[in-house]
């Protein structure tokens, strides 16, 4: 049911500084930058590898303000690992299955994620303390 690790989301105070650090330290490259008002973040995706149905990435997240999910996370815990995101083939089917097992869905329906993806979050308290995201990638051009 899970295709791959799509990305790891890392909360940071300064996106440009953190991008420079990851590029210099790990030799990864930014393939996308977006502002996602609905999620309260500006973010960058740095490509790591290609997998079934899509790539895998490091996602760097800077909050748009203190009263956002990442803003609150930084205030409480400081910079660091914010969430892990798994690629799924069909996000609505995955939400139905996982929600049906008793895990709280933080989104009633899929939302817009980075690079044209559809995403949905699972409550960290129901996933062993790990904020977990499901990601369905758009079809690849043939
Ligand atoms: C909060 N908690 C976490 C956590 N954030 N645990 C693990 N990882 C995290 N990232 C824990 C808190 O410590 C607390 O536990 C409990 O969850 C409730 O947290 P809270 O601080 O009282 O509540 P809120 O209001 O901050 O809500 C937390 C929640 C929220 C996870 C529900 O942040 C949320 O809905 N997140 C989903 C959306 C999101 O994160 N968007 C930003 C990335 P204790 O034990 O202290 O009670 S957007 C993104 O990534 C997109 C662009 C993409 O991938 O394409």
From TrEMBL:
Q: Where is the VOC domain?
A: 4-137
Q: Which domain of life is it from?
A: Bacteria
InterPro entries the record matches = Glyas_Bleomycin-R_OHBP_Dase, MeMalonyl-CoA_epimerase, MMCE/EMCE_epimerase, VOC_core
The record, for Gene3D superfamilies, names: 2,3-Dihydroxybiphenyl 1,2-Dioxygenase, domain 1
Question: What PROSITE patterns does the record tag this protein with?
Answer: VOC (PS51819)
Which GO molecular function entries does the Swiss-Prot or TrEMBL record give?
A: metal ion binding; methylmalonyl-CoA epimerase activity
Keyword Metal-binding carried by entry = yes
Q: Which UniProt keywords apply?
A: Isomerase, Metal-binding
Q: Mind listing the GO biological process terms from this record?
A: L-methylmalonyl-CoA metabolic process
- EC number(s) from the headed UniProt entry: 5.1.99.1
Keyword hit for Isomerase:
yes
In Pfam terms, one family for this protein is Glyoxalase_4
Q: To which protein family does this belong?
A: Belongs to the methylmalonyl-CoA epimerase family.
Q: Which NCBIfam families match?
A: metmalonyl_epim (TIGR03081)
- Please report the name of this protein according to its UniProt entry: Methylmalonyl-CoA/ethylmalonyl-CoA epimerase
Organism encoding this protein: Sphaerisporangium krabiense
């Amino acid at each position: 049911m899970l295709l791959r690790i799509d990305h790891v989301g890392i909360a940071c105070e300064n996106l440009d500084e953190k991008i420079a650090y990851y590029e210099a330290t790990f030799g990864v490259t930014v393939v996308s930058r977006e502002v996602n008002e609905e999620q309260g973040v500006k973010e960058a995706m740095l490509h790591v590898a290609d997998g079934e149905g899509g790539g895998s990435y490091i996602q760097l997240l800077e909050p748009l303000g203190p009263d956002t999910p990442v803003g609150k996370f930084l205030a409480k815990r400081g910079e660091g690992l914010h969430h892990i995101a798994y690629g799924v083939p069909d996000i609505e089917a995955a939400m139905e299955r996982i929600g049906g097992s008793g895990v709280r869905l933080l989104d009633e329906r899929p939302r817009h994620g980075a690079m044209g993806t559809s995403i949905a979050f699972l409550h960290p308290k129901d996933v062993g303390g790990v904020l977990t995201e499901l990601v369905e990638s758009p079809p690849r051009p043939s």
